[in-house]
Amino acid sequence: MTAEDTLADSGLHFDDLNKLRVLEPENAQQTGELKEECQEFVGKIAEFQKMVGSFISITNDLAQEVEKEKMKAIGSRNMLRSIAKQRESEQKQLQALIAEKKNQLERLRVQQQALEKQEVEQNEFIDQFSTT
């Protein structure tokens, strides 16, 4: 048995640089590769988290803008309803005023006809006394 075999049996190995190692060279290499892959994975996860954070931030900003526009739209709709109700109320007031003025006009016509009739009667009465 050689010295290397004796060391290998006790769990000690030499690497490519002839350094004494506890792990077999193959296991050490696989461990190093795994470490590099893990570091790459962690880097990718960090990059993914940044992208997700950015996406969430943009989504939140967009949600706030949408909410703001929604409130503006609701305010505009309420204002339009208010204006429509106000116009309807004004229209009813104007219709009531028109009806009142028509009644007043009719009353004044009747009064005018009565006064014209009275004038005719008085003129006839005057004519009767003046011709006699």
Automatic annotation (TrEMBL):
<keyword id="KW-0175">Coiled coil</keyword>
<dbReference type="InterPro" id="IPR028172">
    <property type="entry name" value="FT20"/>
</dbReference>
<protein>
    <recommendedName>
        <fullName>Intraflagellar transport 20</fullName>
    </recommendedName>
</protein>
<dbReference type="Pfam" id="PF14931">
    <property type="entry name" value="IFT20"/>
</dbReference>
<feature type="coiled-coil region">
    <location>
        <begin position="80"/>
        <end position="121"/>
    </location>
</feature>
<keyword id="KW-0966">Cell projection</keyword>
